[in-house]
Amino acid sequence: MDAGGLDAAAREALESAVKSALAGAEGVDEVHVALTADKQRRRMIAIGSGKGGVGKSTLAANLAVAMARRGRKVGLVDADIYGPSQQRLLKTEGQKPTASKEQLRPLQTESGVALLSMGNLVEQDRAIAWRGPMASGALGQLVDADWGETELLIVDLPPGTGDVQLTMIQKHKPDGAVIVSTPQDLALMDATRAMNLFNAADVPIVGFVENMAGYICPHCGEMSDPFGSGGAEAVANQIDVPFLGRIPLDIAIRLASDAGEPIASGDDVRGRAFDAIAGRLEAWLAAG
Fold first, then answer.
1. The pTM is what?
2. What fold characterizes domain 41-287?
């Protein structure tokens, strides 16, 4: 009997009900019920921010790659319907996903991450001018695709708190959310609003990530903080939310992103910041 997807209590109740129903049947002396093995539930982590331009998509791509390097079967949903970028970050521009039985099949990237992005479904220079219901419907097709054996979905949300975010949170209910911000006060204010949206829907906050945290001059090696320093960690401590780590403002990360080769996919020392965040996400998933 297929009991895949049922929790332990539901499996036990099903087994008991079947035994009770058959126990009194004529000619039945003994009842044995064999249930299929429990299928591992796919986990979903949303990457959100209240403001554009804070590096959310870069974090999502590198976090997905870092988790794949740790042995996870990872999929990435580019939920930024109006401004998709993961097709560039994961070098799938020009590729089109296929479909089977009205379900999309993700693209397999060189980085070992399965990907679905609107950037692979429309022409590169075409503006997507859809109203909320159409955008929300497109999101549903990306999330409900044929993800196969994928065990972890990373969802790169658009900035802000609009229709797509509400659909993601209310209909698809991610298991947790990572909030990305740069150190300055304005970005932190918007990041806090994004966090409050998840809190209102009882979506746990995995933690805060501070991006563009410190710039190291490639010529002299001097460290400076053009956007400030420590703001995200201070806010995280103030509101009792885990702080997952900092990502530096580094030209190597930008160049790797433009080339479609996430820096977390190699052994570059600058990729270790993403791996450290992946390790904390791994621990959070294991605890849940």
1. 0.83
2. Rossmann fold (3.40.50)
